[in-house]
Amino acid sequence: MTSLSDILTDLVSDVDGVFLFSPNGSFHERFDGIENVVVVGAENTVEADTFVELPIQFADVTDRIRFGIEGAMDDGLVGEGDVLACIGSLFSDDADFTSRVRVDESMRSGIYDLFTNSRADPTVISDVFEVALELGRKGQKGKPVGALFVVGDAGKVMNKSRPLSYNPFEKSHVHVGDPIVNVMLKEFSRLDGAFVISDSGKIVSAYRYLEPSAEGVDIPKGLGARHMAGGAITRDTNATAIVLSESDGLVRAFKGGKLILELDPEEY
Ligand SMILES: Nc1ncnc2c1ncn2[C@@H]1O[C@H](COP(=O)(O)OP(=O)(O)OP(=O)(O)O)[C@@H](O)[C@H]1O
Ligand SMILES: [Mn+2]
């Protein structure tokens, strides 16, 4: 007779490492003496030796796990073929799930790269995500609204675009992340076109019509001109595009001409 614990033991047997997602202190302490423990979370509150920082608390657990593993791969903590036990919390603040994952280059989604190896500062990327997610949750005066943010490599992005109208950010020196700027961005999301944001988070322009070459851009069918332009500009430049869809309410991120991440603002 097999018992449930036998079956669950198989899940974590012979693993090469353990990934703890946002563990609390006392739970983390229980891993003292266990080898190759990597902590993944918003902050290293447990002072773990090996830590991968999450820029946003991905609601989708596969996104969370992918981010942690891709980060650890980048840091050389794990490699192809390693088998990991991922332990985290899904329904409560305590650890309540375990997943056995085999590290495989082909599972690399670019989600870690999106934040860490973009031209723009990682905090700028997360700040823009925050604005897009909040805009997606609340809309503009209760109505769904779309928005397109092109982040990083601003000089090149400006060269591949033209103004639709007077740029309200001309000569201003404001940065994403400032609370007042977030209000302005939301206000101006009614305008057509894209926001262009520099590597350091300066709002360079609103109202930009992007004119990238869309050749070789591989974005899912069914998405319209805003997403096509957003995706394509990231192939033509080293920018990252963060797009809020007015029609389905999702926030998507593109890099290198590819759709990397899709988030539902209602889950954040
Ligand atoms: N090349 C472009 N550059 C900048 N903004 C654009 C471009 N093309 C479209 N947009 C903006 O996107 C808006 C919506 O266009 P469209 O409906 O075709 O896009 P979409 O991808 O379907 O986005 P949504 O899901 O929000 O409807 C336009 O009103 C315009 O403001
Ligand atoms: Mn549309």
UniProtKB/TrEMBL annotation:
Q: What class of enzyme is it?
A: transferase
Q: Where is the DAC domain?
A: 108-265
Per its database record, what is this protein's job?
Answer: Diadenylate cyclase that catalyzes the condensation of 2 ATP molecules into cyclic di-AMP (c-di-AMP). c-di-AMP is a second messenger for intracellular signal transduction involved in the control of important regulatory processes such as osmoregulation.
Catalytic activity line of the entry: 2 ATP = 3',3'-c-di-AMP + 2 diphosphate
PANTHER family associated with the record: DIADENYLATE CYCLASE
Give yes or no: UniProt keyword Transcription regulation. no
User: What organism, scientifically named, is this protein from?
Assistant: Halohasta litchfieldiae
UniProtKB keywords: ATP-binding, Manganese, Nucleotide-binding, Nucleotidyltransferase, Transferase
* A GO molecular-function annotation: adenylate cyclase activity
- Cofactor(s) this protein cannot do without: Mn(2+)
SUPFAM superfamilies, alphabetically?
YojJ-like
Q: Quote the InterPro entries the UniProt record gives.
A: DAC_DacZ (IPR014499), DacZ_N (IPR045586), Diadenylate_Cyclase_DacZ (IPR053542), DisA (IPR050338), DNA_integrity_DisA_N_sf (IPR036888), DNA_integrity_scan_DisA_N (IPR003390)
Q: Could you tell me which PROSITE patterns the record lists for this protein? A: DAC
Family, similarity comment: Belongs to the adenylate cyclase family. DacZ subfamily.
Documented EC number(s): 2.7.7.85
- A Pfam family matched in the record: DAC
Keyword Manganese appears in the UniProt entry: yes
Matching Gene3D superfamilies? DNA integrity scanning protein, DisA, N-terminal domain
What is this protein's name? Diadenylate cyclase
